[in-house]
Amino acid sequence: MKKIPRLFSKKREKHISKESIWVYEKNILECAYIKIDGVPCLSIEGVLYKRFNRKLLRNKKRKPEPSHWIPSEAEPSEFEKNWYGWTIITQKSCDKYYIKGLHNYIKSHNHKLSSGIYELIGPKINNNPYKIEDYYLIPHCSHKVYIFVSYHSILNYFLTDSIGSVSEGLVFYGIGNRRAKVRRKDLGLEWPIVTKTIRKNKSIKSKDGD
């Protein structure tokens, strides 16, 4: 999973970025999905995988290929640092939060995990912005939003909508797997919503690609 381009430019925050101008071209209501602040996972016929980066090491070689490696993109050139893909979840302690999320999904839905991409959220994930007490797998594109693509429309959505006001951001999807994201932070809004000192812990944190 490559890093999703920002909808708005970093240098000119109220202007659409060059990479995401396709979102704005129609100038009509666009369909977006709520962005979940978690760690991405992949399910293939009920088998769960976590994201893995075979990045370049100091010796100019890539991290070794893990068990059941599934690349999510073509092998990059020798000069590109990151190479994202998926590796299967095991019963090892390092994967315990994924296992808990999987068990809770099966328990609540009464069937195995459907194929697709999910976000793992929970107490030790990204400092737990949702303030929940257990681990859950949330499917991508689970909540659809129709919104005019403008700085003020999106800002108003984050400030006044019952769901938008507690969401990390939005992701727009286009033809040919094009995507663009806008986060509350991009618009100068707080995330997590309530400012407080969070005790440091050994959390799993999402990096890039989301």
- Could you state the oligomeric state of the chains shown? single chain
Helix content: 10-25%
Sheet with the most strands, sense and barrel status: 6 strands, antiparallel
**SS field, number of helical segments:** 3
How far apart are the termini?
8 Å
Mean pLDDT: 86
Shape: globular
Structure class: alpha+beta
Uncertain residue ranges? 195-202
What is the count of structural domains?
Answer: 2
The total of beta strands comes to: 10
Q: How large, in whole angstroms, is the Cα Rg?
A: 18 Å
Secondary-structure element order, N to C: HEEEEEHEEEHEE
Percent range for β-strand residues: 15-25%
Kindly report the spatial arrangement of strands forming the biggest sheet.
4-5-3-2-6-7
Molecular structure report:
This protein is an alpha+beta fold. The chain folds into 2 domains: 1-36 and 140-210, no CATH class; 38-139, no CATH class. It is 13% helix and 25% strand. The protein has helices at 21-24, 96-109, 151-160; strands spanning 29-35, 39-44, 47-53, 70-71, 84-88, 116-121, 136-139, 144-148, 169-173, 179-183. The strands form 2 sheets. The protein has a 6-stranded antiparallel β-sheet with strand order 4-5-3-2-6-7. A hairpin with a 2-residue loop joins strand 2 (39-44) and strand 3 (47-53). The N and C termini lie close together (8 Å).
